[in-house]
Automatic annotation (TrEMBL):
One of its GO terms (biological process) is establishment of mitotic spindle orientation. InterPro entries: GPSM, TPR-like_helical_dom_sf, TPR_rpt. One of its GO terms (cellular component) is cell cortex. Keywords: Cytoplasm, Repeat. SMART domains: TPR (SM00028). This is Uncharacterized protein.
């Protein structure tokens, strides 16, 4: 059951949602046979998230709620926090950002109780993105910076770089160009070291947007083209 669930997570990381769901469902059958409720809740959470990313949001939502019901019954706070975070992702996908923030904040309070620092960082990220979607830059910046602090503490360089890009985007909305340049340079250093082409493409796109606002049209075009060749 655990191996099948790990395989499901692996296929999920690769974006192969049907394969992920297949492995999760096989894991679910074994968890039910063994009456391992925590494993069942965790597997249902995995199926729910895979369904969301596959585009089957209503099915994903059903699986996540089933996971939450079990978590409440057996008081499995770690799985509960992650399932609630995924409910937030569901509302995010529907553009219901206030509902998403409610779910994320409930998830965050549980993750803080059990001191799950990795989950806390991910949730802070998600809250920041949701506030950004609502156009509430002040709140978005606060949560993104909190996520950066945790990413720094746990050595999560990749997510630190991603958050730097999003902070740059938020400051660009406010026309705070000095801050934008600061976060671009920090992010670029990280993605250069990681040799992450998609991360660099996001930076080039942000540079192009900044240069456009500064009316440096030709330079802006150069960076848009650099981003497009990678995308």
């Amino acid at each position: 059951s655990l191996i099948l669930m790990s395989m499901g997570n692996l296929y999920g990381d690769m974006g192969r949602w049907d394969k992920a769901i297949g492995h999760f469902k096989n894991s679910l059958l074994i968890s039910e046979e063994l009456n391992n409720l925590k494993r069942k809740a965790s597997t249902l959470k995995g199926i729910g998230l895979a369904c969301l990313f596959k585009g089957d949001t209503s099915t994903g939502y059903s699986y996540l709620n089933e996971s939450i019901d079990i978590c409440k019954k057996i008081k499995s706070l770690d799985v509960y926090a992650m399932a609630l975070n995924n409910i937030g992702i569901y509302y995010d996908m529907l553009g219901r950002w206030k509902k998403a923030i409610e779910a994320y904040k409930e998830s965050l309070s549980i993750a803080k109780k059990i001191k799950n620092i990795i989950v806390i960082s991910n949730i802070m990220n998600n809250i920041g993105f949701a506030y950004s979607s609502l156009g509430e830059s002040k709140h978005a910046i606060y949560y993104l910076k909190e996520s950066v602090k945790i990413a720094d503490k746990i050595g999560d360089i990749y997510n630190k770089g991603i958050n730097y890009i999003h902070l740059g985007e938020e400051y660009l909305k406010k026309d705070e160009f000095k801050e934008v340049k600061y976060y671009i340079s920090r992010a670029e250093k990280i993605f250069d070291e990681l040799d992450d082409k998609l991360g660099l493409a996001d930076i080039y796109r942000l540079k192009a947007k900044l240069l456009k606002k500064l009316k440096r049209w030709e330079d802006s075009e150069i960076f848009f083209k650099k981003a497009i060749t990678i995308y």
